[in-house]
Design brief:
Radius of gyration: 29 Å
Helix content: 55-70%
Structural class: mainly alpha
Number of helices: 27
Distance between the termini: 89 Å
Number of strands: 10
Largest sheet: 6 strands, mixed
Shape: globular
Length: 719
């Protein structure tokens, strides 16, 4: 085929597809924007973080986080700032506080889409160079994990965004360094190589300058030629990398340094490019990082200096923000020695299993995609960084072929063929190392440290991209990928989704009807041993409770059949693109059903209705709200009432360390203090999980009235 004919499609090679973007944005609107308004905030971390943001607005103090008037040292401020900024614009509403997290999900979809185009445009079907990025972003949009862990306000989806951007920015920076090296006099095309020069000349006439031909790995396109092209500097991506890393640190602390720096060092070491490290603009990058990340850390340390701490509690003699945040929240947590030890520990096998579960149903295609990446590395398809100078003609032929030739078994698996897949900077080699290293770095780190089930979220884009690589190859007609995707659909996805559809359908049809107004708590079985897990309350569900979820269960049953059987038959007929869209659409229905289930389960997880009942009772400045236990058991009361609550036997965990500071309010009550307050002239609202026992204890002191009950929680009042 003449070179001119091959280059005619080049201008679209790296462009974003409006149709793909529209589908991704539609999925985002339905799932993320549609879930902003219900249910209410959850007790514990969700309402804790958002209430901290609200108190920042009220205090006009954006350095020291406070919750319920007490200093809170656990986390860095970016999540608080985001929620505070949104509530400053839209008002102090729960939906307003959730907007930044929804926007972060959209940014993550675009980041994964862009990285997928970079890594897989050379294996995409003709005319659809964005297919790999599209499938990966669609998987993130419609997988279980990213959706579940954006139902409450935690920072881990932001870590996935920062890691995706960091990986992409490093690869761009390395591209530009390689282009600069290949453009040096000793690497220029010899004047005698007229045939290869003519190939470049033809491409120069037909291919407009764009990011695709200035940043594509290993492509000595006309834009990079010594004569007339643009030689982009690595400075900008290096500075952007530093900025992203700083935002990562402001999101969840020092882990924001560990993952990106670890990725850079390991990637350069494994590709024998450590010599390039000094050329990554370390000084200017460090300056950008410090300009963004350092001010808050310095101000936080200055505003909360060390004070004497009580003896006998395992604390140092003196400590302030620096000891708790830098040591206790990072080093001690990594070693499992944090004080207080207020979190669960997921077993390692379960952690790895859940890491795969979080990208269901797209995990069905992960084994095939993972096998391809591992096979690439095992066959040593990442040689030295350069094609030898004597092979300049092959360099240019490979570059043109890499842009215009879809991946096939012939150019992927022939060890002796100098195809683009074996070139030093070909996309398939880059993707293999980048994605495997990324996933193993995150999952390996948390395997060795303290871990929660959602800590794997920063690795999910890498897993989604690997699964998308298999689907992209199948779309391009690669026979082995088609067989693998079809087999995993038949033997994994179809049986699993059929079983789930059967279970959901069974309970939707047979679960007993509950009378109107039934409190869901009366139908559940308590399993407190699981409550340290973020989804631990799911173990409380019983057959009787399933009657409250008939609609979501029925929707899930139908959508499961579409995910499994429906997409399988479409895939078997060769309509792979339609099969994947069907899978995504059906999964969207499943997630919407899950959201409806969450809304019906909400009385167990949150206390908004109880807070509104207190507001409707006309709370006065002299009235007092008491919470029976630690703050996390009813933290939504603080946000929805706007009142500071007092805690009975609640000086533990989150507020414990901050309570040592002189400015901490006197909000911690004892049993004797409760009795005195109940008998006082003040109106008391008592939030409790044990209304019977509390009524028995307090009735001799003053009348006990039940104001409201929901989710096994009750508001008692003495007036």
């Amino acid at each position: 085929m003449p070179v001119q004919a091959k280059t005619q499609s080049a201008p679209t090679n790296r462009r974003w597809s409006p149709r793909s973007i529209a589908i991704l944005v539609l999925a985002w609107i339905v799932l993320q924007i549609g879930g902003l308004f219900t249910p209410g905030l959850l007790d514990d971390v969700d309402s804790i973080y958002i209430e901290i943001a609200r108190e920042m607005l009220r205090r006009h103090d954006f350095v020291t986080p406070y919750i319920n008037g007490v200093r809170f040292f656990d986390k860095p401020p970016l999540m608080y700032w985001m929620a505070a900024g949104s509530m400053r614009i839209f008002g102090p509403y729960d939906w307003a506080a959730r907007i930044p997290l929804a926007l972060a999900v959209l940014a993550l979809l675009f980041a994964v889409y862009a990285l997928g185009i970079r890594l897989f445009s050379n294996i995409s079907p003709a005319g659809s160079p964005d297919r790999g990025g599209f499938y990966a972003a669609l998987a993130i949009a419609t997988s279980i994990g990213p959706y579940l862990y954006t139902r409450f306000y935690i920072p881990d989806i932001l870590l996935a965004l920062w890691m995706t951007l960091a990986v992409h920015l490093l690869l761009i920076a390395l591209d530009r360094l390689h282009v600069k090296d290949s453009d040096s006099p000793q690497n220029r095309v010899p004047h005698s190589s007229q045939s290869h020069r003519s190939e470049w000349d033809i491409r120069a006439k037909h291919e407009p300058l764009s990011s695709s031909n200035t940043e594509s790995p290993g492509t000595p396109s006309f834009a990079h030629s010594a004569k007339g092209g643009i030689n982009k500097s690595a400075l900008l991506p290096c500075l952007a990398f530093a900025a992203v890393m700083a935002l990562n640190v402001l999101t969840k602390g020092l882990i924001g340094l560990v993952f990106p720096i670890g990725f850079v060092l390991l990637y350069l070491a494994l590709t024998k490019q450590l010599r390039l490290l000094p050329r990554l603009h370390l000084i200017s990058g460090t300056a950008v990082f410090l300009a963004i990340a350092a001010p808050w850390h310095i101000l936080a340390a200055l505003r909360t200096p060390a004070i004497p701490l009580p003896a006998g509690l395992g604390l140092p003699a003196t400590g302030g923000w620096a000891w708790f945040y830098l040591y206790n929240e990072h080093i001690a947590r990594f070693l499992g020695r944090r004080i207080p030890h207020d979190y669960g520990q997921v077993p390692i096998p379960l952690f790895w299993l859940l890491s795969a579960l979080w990208i269901m149903p797209w995990v069905a295609f992960l084994p095939g995609g993972l096998a391809n990446q591992i096979r690439t590395l095992r066959n040593k398809l990442i040689p030295t960084n350069r094609v030898p100078h004597s092979s300049q003609s092959h360099r240019h032929k490979w570059a043109i072929r890499a842009r215009h030739e879809p991946l096939s078994s012939s150019n992927l698996e022939s060890p002796g063929a100098p195809s683009f897949a074996h070139s030093a900077k070909g996309g398939i080699n880059e993707s293999a190392l980048s994605l495997l290293l990324w996933a193993l770095l995150v999952l390996g780190f948390f395997t060795l440290s303290s871990r929660q089930e959602y800590y794997a979220l920063p690795a999910l884009p890498a897993l989604a991209l690997m699964a998308a690589s298999l689907l992209t190859q199948a779309d391009a007609g690669e026979a082995k990928a088609q067989r693998s995707s079809l087999a995993w659909s038949l033997w994994f996805l179809v049986p699993l989704t059929t079983f789930i559809a059967f279970v959901c359908g069974y309970f939707a049809l047979t679960a007993p009807h509950s009378p109107p107004g039934t409190d869901i708590a009366s139908l559940l079985a308590a399993n407190p041993e699981f409550y340290n897990l973020s989804l631990g309350h799911l173990f409380d569900l019983t057959g009787d409770a399933m009657g409250l979820f008939r609609g979501p269960l029925a929707a899930a049953a139908v959508s499961m059949l579409a995910i499994g059987l429906g997409s399988y038959f479409l895939r078997r007929s060769g309509r792979t693109y339609v099969a994947n869209l069907t899978l995504a659409a059906a999964m969207t229905v499943t997630l919407l059903a899950a959201h409806q289930g969450l809304a019906r389960f909400y009385p167990i997880l949150g206390s908004k209705s109880l807070a509104l009942a207190i507001n409707q009772a006309g709370i006065q400045p002299t009235d007092l709200i008491l919470l029976d236990g630690e703050l996390t058991s009813g933290s939504t009361l603080v946000f929805y009432t706007g009142q500071r609550v007092h805690l009975i036997n609640g000086n533990v965990n989150g507020l414990w360390y901050g309570s040592f500071w002189p400015d901490a309010p006197k909000i911690f009550e004892t049993e004797e203090g409760l009795r005195q307050l109940w008998a006082s002239p003040r109106r008391i609202f008592l939030f409790t999980y044990n209304p019977t026992a509390r009524t028995r204890d307090l009735a001799p002191l003053a009348p006990v009235h039940t104001l409201a009950t929901a989710g096994g929680k009750t508001i008692l009042t003495n007036r």
